[in-house]
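writing this on my phone so excuse typos. first protein, seq and then structure
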Amino acid sequence: MERMNTASDYLESQRGRLSEALKKAYLAGQHIVYIVTTDYGVVRDVLRYHPIILTREKAVTIKQPPVVRDGVVVTEGVAAEPQTMFYGVEALQNFNPAEPSICLVTITERAEQNLAVCAGLKKFVEHLGGVAPENKKVNYQRSMVVIVTPVAPDVPAEVAPFCRVLRVGHPSESEIRKLIIEQVLKLDHKHIAEAPGGDTYLRQMVLYMKGLTRQKIQQTLGRIKSELDRVFILPGNQEEFNELVRIIIEEKTQLLENSKILKLQRVSKSMKKVNGMSRLTAWLEMRKRVIANPEEVWRTVRVPQPKGILLSGIPGTGKSLAAKTTAHVFGDLPLLQLDMGNVMDKYQGESEHKIEEALQLAEAMSPCILWIDEIEKGIAGAAGGSGSSESMQRIFGKLLTWMQEKEERGICCFVFATANSIDNIPPELFRSGRFDEKFFTFFPSAKECVDIFLGLVNGQQHAFVAEQRQRGEEHPVHLFDVGILQRDFFAQILDSEVVLPPDSDVVLPVPSSKSPGKVPRDKKFMTGSDIEAIVERAKLIMYYRGQTEQRRGHAVYSTALFRDAICTAISEIKTYGQTNARNVANCYVQLSEHNFSPVSDEIVVPFDYPDITRLEDDGLPFDLWLEGDNGAVDYYRHLQTRYDQQLFCYVGMAVNQYVKPDNH
């Protein structure tokens, strides 16, 4: 019975699956096999200990490496002596086997594959077809060329009939589990099966080791042993286990060093509450426990791990900050940024290779957050039509398939997709099950604008003082005067004429007025990026005016002078609301149609009022003059600040002025 279990385990393992696939290719006459994997050790071990070609009438047997099962070393059976092997591109170009053999080629660059490797393959195929002498022809027909490549190959048309492409996935959970047991026994001389808390340790370690190759897992565990003096550290020992996790994440991060597509975004450990995203933060907090231990939660209460969210909205409203907030809330998980603009390539097939490589790296970093930045750049038009392309369709298909299957394969990767516009995104992406939720960011309310101003100046104040204390200053100089750090300072500026000029066309709507209204361009409606630019411009203005202080007991920026500089900066800067009213209107209508949820509880312009169906009869989609319990007039009057009232009217007028029937 034990022998049967051993055989079954082998066939389900990476080595077993690859060995069987190679044998099938050999028997089918497919003499060229591409193996897509980064785990070169698996291929080496299969060809060394599990021969595909038997060259002797009576094979000489050798012992296979010992295997650890449930913490106990067991000895496997024996295997035939390895077949004759040749290695490298040079061997392939001069391949002239005296007996049936295998030529193993490992490539890392696609350029190398397209030149030297392709030339050697064409020569090999010519000999298969009869160029070689008759006695040599038999050797060619019983030989194989195995090419190991980390990315999907571009198979030359001349050799395609003789080729098979195999993919070697990452070790399964059971394989990772056995490998960890083996290494703990080897490094710590401890049987996990007999150790208290061993099951908890294994579940956590399997989660963090997912996506790594066998060789990388062994290297990582070896580093843990070297730095922490032991590998078996229970999660209950929080400080040491956190160090263990840190080492694993550092080792995984090394996988991204040579990637031109994925970037690891650093998230500050001192990151505090993010202003203007209370609803999103609460949503993330509810799912934090599931992300931290998805397998245990599924096993005990059958709650699946979160898939991800789609966040859209006008530029400059904090979508990038929201991605970093997500990583912070989820326990500082690795945040991988995939810029879809970098995926697109002018060479045919390269874009698909890039997205495939990016998704493989994301799997290797599991558990992690994959931030797909500006997703519309890579898949806009993929649903068909004049603007579509085959490349976009293939990219979109690969992405959807991966998103659908990653949980089934045990990959804990939370997808955080952002978009500035969803107008050209295929509707399949909005289907239920792709994302757990769709959020939007829009203009912040007056209260949120004040919060953002205060967050910026307080953050800079704290960092400025901390740097001085690190240099040994006992009485550090403050960056901002205490008056600047008060809510009233910025609230008064938002309500001033520099932000809301009195000669604006935006006034309290009355039922008798049914014109669409003229969108005002002199109002300074701000995004988070506008606010940051205003603060930096104000500091620069004071610096060039010579109004900054560097003396003890005085803040660098005084209250009265900074207020004047802020007002000057606001008058000089063209905010997003002044320059992009048409985009504001289109974005608002798109988000309304697809039922997006706000990231904040402070909703200045809710989605209750625009009625897109009114476009068909030349009506105004945003009825600013609707009275009653849910009417726009009553909502307008209940807004607490003049800034919010004017913003509400501005968006309504923009929708009425710019959203036309031919846009939908």
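second protein below, same order as before
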Amino acid sequence: MISMSKIILSIGGMSCSACSSGLEKYLNKQEGIISASVNLVLAQAFIEYEDSITIEKLEEYIKEAGFESLGVYDEQKELKKDKSLSFLIIFGVLALVVLYISMAPMFKLPTIPYVDMHKNPINYALCLFFLTVIFIIYGNDIFKSGLKNALHRTSNMDTLVSIGVVASFGYSLFNMVMVLIGNDVMYYIDNLYFESCAIIIYFIKLGRYIDNRSKEKTKEALKELVQITPTSALLKRNDTEVEVTIDEIKKDDILICKPGMKVAVDGVVVEGNTHVNQSFITGEAKPIKRKINDKVIAGSVNLDGYIEYRAQKIGKNSTISEIVKLVVEATNTKAPIQRIADKVSGYFVPSIIAIAIVTLIVYLLCGYTFSQSIMTFVTVLVVACPCALGLATPLAIVVSEGLCAKNGILVKNSKTLENAHKVDTLIFDKTGTLTYGNLKIFKIFNYSKYSDKDLIKRVASIESKTSHPIAKAFDSYVQEHNLTLSDVKSFKNISGMGLQGKIDNKTLYIGNDKLFKKLKIENSKKKDELYLSQLGNSIIYVIEESKIIGLIGVQDIVRDNAKETITKLKKLDKDIIMLTGDGQNIANIIADSLGIKNVIADVMPQDKTKVVKKLLAEGKTVMMIGDGINDAPALASASIGVSINDATDIAADSSDVILINNDLEKIISLIHISKKTVINIKQNLFWAFFYNCCMLPIAIGLLKPFGINMNPMIAGLAMTLSSLTVILNALRLKRIKIKSSN
């Protein structure tokens, strides 16, 4: 079996979908690369590769394709200060100067005598030439990218612009030489198009700046997560407090967190109790109590108590880092709709070059001057740049992924985000998913002189001597009520019946109804037992010496919001199924309380997958929600697998979505976000294609008979505005209000 690794590399030099799709195709052809997915918005390549090749080799492939590897993606890296705005302002002023010098005579504005095209044509030509050269130097990255991609047969937006600008500049340069040598000066001075070259470059740079700023906004949720954790912590060392940096913390170190401080790393409370705010990861602002043995997450704010906690997950293993990693990996996968756009974009650029060449030839054959023909050629190339097409899908996906992460929904791939709203059947595991999976005391029948707390304290003291799951129910009660366990003597396990022990010189028996036969006493509490049994409880009798002093019902408790979630899903016309390995009686009790009609019980782990596959074969789109090892195959088989955050590692690995705060209602939020995202993507693609469908005929000149015309400068502005339309539409997704139904 081939050993495989994954890596995310930051990429420089990409400017449109043709860049990302071209690089992706090139990487996927290389030996040793299993799969590669290139994300234009995040400027990253997510690569799965054989361990036989090195990262250096991967970076070499990227360079060969005409792009630059900026190293392994690091979510902790400081953002560099963006200096592009300063240059944009400076060149914006220069662009206005160029436009004024070239356009003033046309609009009968006052001209600058020294560079007046009629009075001083040579000065006019040289001034525009030198100013345009400055712009060409400013846009050297465009020409480098265009040349590299042309050489590697992965033509992109920069290729179109480069061909157009070079053609326009070369033609203008020839005309300038004619002016300098005094050959028909007035004719050639009217055919200088240096200003078109300069303005096109400026508009490309302006559009790219807007794109980059918008892309940065899509990453805000990730940045917020990265910046949540503090940079230092209090380390307990020899009963003293020492302030250390995060990097100095080692696993199992004991750390201190005082009121108002943030938890530095993921850990477990070993001393004290408090309330913490972890809304940054759960979306729930309500304070959560944390006591001994409870987990705390890095970045949580300690509200009111002093705690000491043992460091468990540090650095890149922390919850925050794992979330950032999952979200970044998800945004680097391709949604099906994105692959269609990429495929179209791959054919689009060569087609536009061909159309531009044909247009040039047709214009010349139809008797147009070379000047008119070359300008039309340049206009076609510039106006058809696929910037908007390249941003349409990935920008919407990244915004939505960030929105999901901010609300405690981790979506592992873009396909899931696109398809979640299509789900028509939801299968819920029972234990640990619809219920908490931990036994709780449901009801106490107290027949003794002891208070309920004293009775449970006696039972818990004996149960503490075992590792039986029922013991955890009593342990939870003890923790919640701050009880102190009693000293137990003569402890004994009675096989198949229960436990025995002495407290305060009195023998206690704790167990099932088989104890009555052993002790040769009569069970006078069968009516109460029947009541508890009908409600799905496990039955525990408490007998002191030979007298029944208590009857306790223990059961798994339904999760908060479970019933509300099921009700809302039904209103969305979703079919709901409970799938469980528990007996039919207990399953029906839980299902009835939640309003679930379709119950499949007594199912073996391997049979859960068969149920999912049967529904898929019937044409259903199935979402499976589970938490255990036995759910993993079904999670992997379903159209979409959802695991809660308390799930086993294998269940989480097999799922497509993880609910960070175990809130089942977030499933409805996911469906809602998915629906809005797909609508937004379709809108983006429509506007991108609509723009090209409208602008291309105008650029070619088909509407000239109606007085509608276009020049290269207007084409550059139109291209920028088309990208801006798509960007603003995608950013509307950030305003989605997380709600449960439409």
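The two ends are 48 Å apart (CA to CA). thats all i got for now
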